[in-house]
Specification:
Two copies of one chain form a homodimer. Chain A is an alpha/beta fold. Chain A contains 13 helices and twelve strands.
Chain lengths: ~325, ~325
């Protein structure tokens, strides 16, 4: 395999000149540049990524920390991020953290030692201090960690209010909320939206704990329907829990949407796979992924951001469950 | 941040000696080793992963090529692989190939330049020549590429026969098969199993093209049910297509399992999320991931494999769709 020395020798220039051409920095005369490029092509020389990263303290890789790829929200996000960065010549190091702080800190340490160029993170557990002491640019996705950390997320609060308003418009008056896990940013915002919208109409609230998981939500729905006669609507904190609620209703012989209307949040593919198809507040997952990539790339390239926080709106998608 | 020179200086030894201790190779006297370790701890020295990989031509990373993370089969596989390798101190570079050969070849080139220590691949498009010319160990998962490439997969052929046998046992006689995409290894094996089992019972066969996708399968099911009166069973080539078949039946007002019985293949989480819950041939996805990690690690460490091909059996899981 050709080395940088072979290229320099064939082009009749120094190794340092070849390096300047490769890294596109420092002055190189146009004729010289051409000679070097010809030599590179002739020898089919491939600069070694590892050697380059040692020299430049960059590895053309992005570390991406997510809670759990088996949560159906994340595969679409990961694809969107990957396809953005592949176009830009970066590879993705993927880590599932289960949102355990200790594990997250270990991952950050690995990333530092591998010179990742930037970090994307979805986390509720990590703090801004732990991110700011890194010398690596960071963009948070989906969950706001701190005002000082650039973030791409959606407006969960107003999305939740809109979800509840749809149920009200459809005639529901006793609307329960199956909430996501405590201290998870998205779950807390959606809960707030539910409570404020119900209070604005002077209606009673029914909040039940869920964990963004299907089975627990199914059991919770059975409990909430048996404990409260007359529940005619459920706003589930995410689509996965809404699917659990639909399963519970089906087991109890309750007809959807006639006797009970259900709306979810997220817009994952599962929402369309089930019967009845789920009405939901759809997140622009591809946009979230792409925009977070754009922000991170700007930070890596040392460009200023126009805005630290980009917020999208969830879109109401009406299907058969309401 | 402490460097290897600081460690050497504090321990009163040469940089080469520190390097021998770090890499655990070459002779170092036990007293000297202790001094070096104390100096490392005292200075909180962290060997730089990039410098180490340049020196050792290893990066403690694994490249993992899958067709598409948004196909619900892969998130569970990726987690299983990641959790195995994280324990062993490796990171995962994830790539979605869409099974486009050109893209796969580009990914392999990137992996070489990054000194990945090993490659895991799920692919129908890549050939053994393209893998064998690499100087990196490779293990194929889910799909057999060639006898010479170590592979972890399941017995799709006999799994398919067992799926059809269940429908026969439940009284079905006109069983249709919605097949997976042409030239995809798993799809061809499952088709063969269906055809052989039906022929063994002297029963007619009905094969319709699917693409491992939900929507196409839904349309295909509508077509097959309208073209063939008396279809009483459907063996779908994967769970995602089985869910599409269930949706079609529901739209046509056909009762499952009374009028039509449906069985899938894979055992993804979606199979349990829908109503009626799907009977399926469940793959041991976690075992597939873990075992392929074990084989690859052995190859990386230069150990011999007891067997080149590990084959698991799919397990029949009966639910409400049959």
């Amino acid at each position: 395999m050709a080395t940088i020395r072979d290229v320099a020798s064939l082009a009749g220039v120094s190794v340092a000149t070849v390096s300047r051409v490769l890294n596109n920095n420092g002055y190189v005369h146009e004729d010289t540049r051409k000679k070097v490029v010809q030599a590179i092509n002739k020898l089919d020389y491939k600069p070694n990524a590892v050697a380059r990263s040692l020299y430049k303290k960059t590895s053309k890789s992005i570390g991406f920390i997510i809670p759990d790829i088996t949560n159906p929200f994340f595969p679409q996000l990961v694809r969107a991020v990957e396809s953005f960065f592949v176009e830009e010549g970066y590879t993705i190091l993927l880590f599932n953290s289960d949102e355990e702080l200790e594990h997250e800190l270990k991952i950050l340490e690995i990333m530092e030692s591998k010179y990742v160029d930037g970090i994307l993170i979805v986390s509720n557990t990590i703090g801004k201090d732990q991110l700011e002491r890194l010398s690596i640019p960071v963009v948070a996705i989906d969950r706001v960690i701190d005002e000082t950390i650039p973030t791409v997320s959606i407006d969960n609060y107003h999305g939740a209010r809109e979800a509840v308003r749809l149920l009200l418009k459809k005639g529901c008056r006793n609307i329960a909320h199956i909430r996501g896990p405590e201290n998870v940013y998205t779950a807390e915002e959606r809960l707030k939206g539910y409570l404020d919208e119900m209070k604005a109409h002077g209606l009673p609230t029914y909040v039940y704990a869920g964990n963004y998981e299907l089975k627990i939500s199914m059991l919770t729905t059975m409990k909430l329907l048996s404990e409260n006669a007359g529940i005619d609507g459920i706003f589930a904190g995410n689509d996965v829990m809404a699917v659990g609620a639909i399963k519970a209703a089906s087991k109890l012989g309750i007809t959807i949407p006639k006797e009970l209307k259900i709306i979810g949040f997220d817009g994952i593919e599962l929402a369309e796979a089930i019967t009845p198809e789920l009405t939901t507040m759809e997140q622009p997952i591809l946009k979230l992924g792409r925009k977070s990539g754009e922000l991170l790339l700007k930070l890596i390239q040392g460009e200023p951001l126009n805005t630290q926080h980009v917020t999208y709106h969830a879109k109401l998608v009406e299907r058969n469950s309401t």
